[in-house]
């Protein structure tokens, strides 16, 4: 077999304790024994990053992001060293690498830095000597020589970026689920594991609430055409491949159903209906770094006033209210109504580009269950609706059945 280069990434549950780290080492050894060049990327032990984040906010609620990064990056330092040791115990030449040692260069957006460039010279030299590199996920080095982190779940992005820089043949993401499913198997027992999913679809899945991969990691995989595989670190079986759409032979109209409880709905009642109003509302929100997702503006009855509804993440709701309430007089609206008892349910599939009636089937399935749709938004490969949160399970199950996704 030809020699391949593989990046293997292990998430927090896969390195949760010493026994699991030893089993990660055995999994890596198999690839090394098969003659492949291997770079391993590890997360912190599960729960550790949460604890580190909690400590920083206990000391300072509005903390200095540079020091936040210094603290939260430490989880990965521990697992990187332990994994290198576990490999050495199995007789494998292995060395740990922190973000700054490679270095993985990022911008200076502490807490959510973006990778700009990875120097691979030294890793290449070590590969040539048969050494395994164990790289700390989540960490980078900023332009001012300080430690940065890539945002929660950022080790996925570390792995994909490394795979792209090393021109790896594959990037395997080992996690506590065995692949990407047509929907959340905890809600729908008949959810099916997908053998393959296209980058574009995976990106929508990740953006619409599925938590398997960090969104940025999928964007990066798509941009650099990195072959990604999501698989279980506990079971020895193939996972889901995230690939170019050309590689997907049987394209269903809808590939899966995603949901996000992380939504809140804001309605501004009786907004003056004149040019420039939307800009004056969404401008300040953008300036405050608040991402607005779905938007509907009703037609006004009188021609003078209209209602405007949009969604933000639950975490941004309080700030959104503050920004708009501070400008109430200038904006001239009558009242602000906020509702965080909502869920966004989306159906996703590349097949939508060539099929009509996809949205209609969704509306009908929800209507049959008596579920009221509050807001709708669509893109080329997705239809999303906002419904009351108590209907989450009912809506997801109904849609999974309506699009013929239930396992036989
Ligand atoms: N340890 C970091 C986190 O929990 C990064 C990661 O696991 O991907 O967010
Ligand atoms: Mg993760």
Tell me the name of the CATH homologous superfamily of the domain at 5-175: Acetylglutamate kinase-like
Taking the alpha carbons of the first and last residues, their distance comes to 37 Å
Strand content: 25-35%
Query: Which strand order spans the largest sheet, edge to edge or round the barrel?
Result: 3-6-2-1-9-11-12-10
In words, what does this structure look like?
- There is one protein chain.
- This protein is of the alpha/beta class and 408 residues long.
- The chain has a domain at 5-175: 3-Layer(aba) Sandwich (Carbamate kinase).
- Helices cover 34% and strands 26% of the residues.
- The strands form four sheets. Strands 3-6-2-1-9-11-12-10 form an eight-stranded mixed beta sheet, sandwiched between helices. The protein has a six-stranded antiparallel beta sheet with strand order 14-15-13-16-18-17.
- Strand 14 and strand 15 (305-313) form a beta hairpin.
- It is globular, with a radius of gyration of 23 Å.
- The two termini are 37 Å apart.
- The mean pLDDT is 95.
- Belongs to the aspartokinase family.
- Residues 266-350 form the ACT domain.
- Keywords: Amino-acid biosynthesis, ATP-binding, Kinase, Lysine biosynthesis, Nucleotide-binding, Transferase.
- ATP binds at residues 9-12, 175-176, 181, 186, 211-212.
- Its EC number is 2.7.2.4.
């Amino acid at each position: 077999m030809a020699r391949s280069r593989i990046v293997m990434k292990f998430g927090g549950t896969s390195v949760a304790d010493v026994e699991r780290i030893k089993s990660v080492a055995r999994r890596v050894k198999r690839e090394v024994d098969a003659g492949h060049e291997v770079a391993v990327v590890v997360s912190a032990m599960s729960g550790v990053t949460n604890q580190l984040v909690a400590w920083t906010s206990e000391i300072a609620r509005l903390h200095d992001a540079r020091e936040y990064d210094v603290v939260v990056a430490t989880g990965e330092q521990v697992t990187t060293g332990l994994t290198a040791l576990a490999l050495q115990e199995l007789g494998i030449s292995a060395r740990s690498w922190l973000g700054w040692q490679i270095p993985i260069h990022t911008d200076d957006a502490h807490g959510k830095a973006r990778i700009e460039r990875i120097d691979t010279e030294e890793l290449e030299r070590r590969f040539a000597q048969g050494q395994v590199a164990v790289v700390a996920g989540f960490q980078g080095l900023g332009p001012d020589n300080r430690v940065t982190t890539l945002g929660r779940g950022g080790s996925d992005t570390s792995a994909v970026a490394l795979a792209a820089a090393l021109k790896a043949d594959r990037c395997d993401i080992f996690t506590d689920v065995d692949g990407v499913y047509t929907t959340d198997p905890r809600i729908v027992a008949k959810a099916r594991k997908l053998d393959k999913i296209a980058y574009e679809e995976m990106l929508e899945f990740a953006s619409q609430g599925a938590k398997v991969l960090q969104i940025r990691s999928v964007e990066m995989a798509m941009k650099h055409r990195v072959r990604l595989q999501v698989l279980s670190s506990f079971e020895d079986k193939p996972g889901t491949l995230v690939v170019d759409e050309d590689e997907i032979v049987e394209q269903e109209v809808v590939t899966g159903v995603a949901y996000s409880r992380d939504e809140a709905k804001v309605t501004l009642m009786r907004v003056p209906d004149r040019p420039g109003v939307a800009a004056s509302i969404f401008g300040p929100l953008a300036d405050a770094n608040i991402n607005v997702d779905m938007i509907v503006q009703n037609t006004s009855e009188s021609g003078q006033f209209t209602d405007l509804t949009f969604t933000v993440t639950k975490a941004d709701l309080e700030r959104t209210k503050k920004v708009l309430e501070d400008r109430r007089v200038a904006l001239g609206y009558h009242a602000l109504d906020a509702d965080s008892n909502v869920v966004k349910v989306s159906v996703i599939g590349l097949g939508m580009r060539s099929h009509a009636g996809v949205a209609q089937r969704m509306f009908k399935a929800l209507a049959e269950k008596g579920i009221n749709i509050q807001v709708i938004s669509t893109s080329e490969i997705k239809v999303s609706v906002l419904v009351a949160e108590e209907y989450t399970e009912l809506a997801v199950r109904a849609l999974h059945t309506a699009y013929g996704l239930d396992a036989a």
